[in-house]
Design brief:
Length: about 110
């Protein structure tokens, strides 16, 4: 098996049935001509309550075809629920001068001090 960068993500799939096996996702993409290199399904639950949906991140074997995959498979039904497929975009970092993760050199003006 090739070395896979598990931080890489091409697509995010939302509105998955909570019990969907990742093999079903792989088969759906493969049957449509978009074989997957990696599939990571996340089923969230909190305090024993399982939500009625899950989501997944996938990496295509040919990442250049991710736009085609979205166009072809967005809205496809899997385990009775329509999938919402989008290009993966990492959440923007919070870059506020007052946030603890800020590493800039910002100093409040005299009026603020």
């Amino acid at each position: 098996m090739p070395n896979i960068d598990k931080t890489a993500r091409d697509l995010i799939i939302r509105n998955l049935h909570p019990a969907v096996p990742k093999d079903d996702i792989r088969k759906l993409f493969s049957d449509a001509g978009f074989p997957l290199q990696f599939c990571w399904v996340i089923n969230k639950s909190r305090e024993g309550v399982v939500y009625n949906h899950a989501f997944a991140f996938v990496v295509l074997e040919n990442s250049k075809r991710k736009h085609e995959a979205v166009a072809a498979l967005n809205g496809a039904i899997l385990c009775g629920q329509p999938m919402r497929i989008n290009l993966y975009r990492p959440r923007a970092q919070f870059h506020s001068p007052v946030h603890p993760t800020w590493h800039g050199s910002w100093q409040p003006s005299e009026a603020v001090r």
